[in-house]
């Protein structure tokens, strides 16, 4: 009698890359970059609460991810973090002493 081997479940990534919908020139990026852009796009949308029905919001997030990738920001975390940082300009640009008073 052989010993049973239990393997962990296979967790596959989605086969669709949602950023492709917004790419006008998908040949400009390799598949790994598009995959990173798609993950960054989805994570940024989730963090910003831009859901599937908000096409205008998703288009704005996608456009920024694509612009950043065209300027050599191709790391998934860096893309996501830049989009999130840029969407909170009033917090980042407000002097600390004013933010503390607002509490």
SSE inventory with pairings:
Blueprint: H1 31-48, H2 55-70, H3 76-86, H4 89-93, H5 96-102
Helix pairs in contact: 1-2, 1-3, 2-3
Description:
The relative contact order is 0.12. The N and C termini lie far apart (about 70 Å). The protein contains five helices and no strands. Mean pLDDT is about 80; it is low at about 10-15 and about 90-103. It is an all-alpha fold. It has one domain (about 20-100). Helices cover about 55% and strands about 0% of the residues. The longest helix is centred in the middle third of the chain and has 18 residues, at about 30-50.
Essential attributes:
0% strand; disordered C terminus; 103 residues
Low-pLDDT parts are 10-14, 90-103
Q: How would you spell out the order of helices and strands? A: HHHHH
Gap from first CA to last CA: 68 Å
- The total tally of domains equals 1
Overall residue-averaged pLDDT value: 80
Number of helices: 5
Q: How helical, in percent, are the residues? A: 55-70%
What kind of sheet is the major sheet? none
Radius of gyration: 19 Å
Task: Please tally the β strands and state the result.
Answer: 0
Characterize the overall form.
globular
- Estimated share of beta-strand residues: under 5%
Structural class: mainly alpha
Quaternary structure annotation: single chain
């Amino acid at each position: 009698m052989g010993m049973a081997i239990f393997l962990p479940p296979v967790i596959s990534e989605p086969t669709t890359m949602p950023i492709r919908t917004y790419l006008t020139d998908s040949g400009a990026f390799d598949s790994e970059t598009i995959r990173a852009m798609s993950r960054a796009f989805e994570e940024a949308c989730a963090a910003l609460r831009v859901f599937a029905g908000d096409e205008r919001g998703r288009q704005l997030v996608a456009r920024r991810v694509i612009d950043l990738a065209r300027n050599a920001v191709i790391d998934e975390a860096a893309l996501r973090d830049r989009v999130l940082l840029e969407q909170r300009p009033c917090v980042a640009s407000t002097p600390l002493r004013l933010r503390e008073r607002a509490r």
